[in-house]
Design a protein that fits this description.
With 248 residues, the chain is mainly α. The protein has nine helices and no strands. Helix 2 packs across helix 4 and helix 6 runs parallel beside helix 9.
Length: 248
């Protein structure tokens, strides 16, 4: 295979440095990429596609999150390592696509984001069941529903905003380019973005989940994220309203 001549260092340059912005990578995401390149080197010897890697990652993720239903630290530890492995696979699909120069495909623009939608929608239910086993508190299911709903609403809000801006500029017969002021971020916005990336993304959710699982306090995790995602969605909605008013 052609990739045999590439060293790990060269593969990192080809598969990880291209198209990867520093401020989009969490600490855990970067840790995943330390390992993922070795799996990517193996996958590149096969005809397997990035989309199949994405599907495999989702299956491993859902299998891992299921271990939290037991409500004990042993299940939490096993589940956590499976979730970490799913995160590594999530890095592999993009690396394979970059190596094979698969730009403009439906994988990155559709399959990848939908895979995360599936994971976010199903993450909190098994954790809530584990929390119920630990505490007997039925209200954890309400907070789990809130966490799932508002996380998905947050992702939908980002898509709606981008669609709304493009539709707005098209209707005004302007160039279909997002204004520069919508690309620039203030220091405060950057800080908020970094906090969000490290606490509310697929990799950011893992460490708090590990801590809550090991201490058998999944209820705190579920309740905390139910409130946290609601506040994040409110903040995003207010920000988008403010930005649209500035466009007018």
């Amino acid at each position: 295979m052609q990739n045999e001549k590439y060293t790990i260092k060269e593969l990192r340059a080809l598969c990880q440095d291209i198209g990867v912005e520093d401020d989009t990578q969490t600490i855990f995401g970067r840790a995943n990429r330390l390992v993922s390149i070795y799996l990517t080197k193996i996958f590149l010897k096969t005809p397997i596609t990035p989309n199949w890697i994405t599907v495999a990652g989702v299956i491993v993720y859902l299998f891992g999150i299921t271990f939290f239903v037991f409500g004990n630290w042993e299940g939490a530890l096993i589940g956590y390592f499976l979730l970490v492995f799913a995160g590594i696979l999530d890095a592999c699909d993009g690396e394979i696509a970059r190596f094979r120069k698969m730009k403009g495909g439906y994988g990155a623009s559709f399959v990848e984001p939908v895979s995360h939608d599936i994971m976010y929608s199903l993450t909190f239910l098994p954790i809530a069941y584990g929390a119920f086993i630990q505490t007997g508190n039925p209200y954890v299911f309400l907070f789990a529903a809130a966490a799932s709903i508002f996380k998905l609403l947050y992702r939908l809000g980002e898509v709606r905003y981008l669609y709304g801006v493009l539709r707005y500029v098209v209707e005004r017969d302007d160039s279909v380019t997002v204004p520069k002021k919508f690309k620039d971020r203030s220091i405060v916005t950057k800080i908020i973005y970094v906090v969000y990336r490290h606490t509310a993304t697929s990799t950011g959710l893992l460490f708090p989940l590990l801590v809550a699982g090991l201490f058998e306090r999944l209820d705190i995790y579920v309740i905390g994220y139910g409130i946290y995602f609601f506040l994040l969605w409110c903040a995003l909605f207010a920000k988008h309203i403010y930005r649209f008013r500035k466009l007018s």
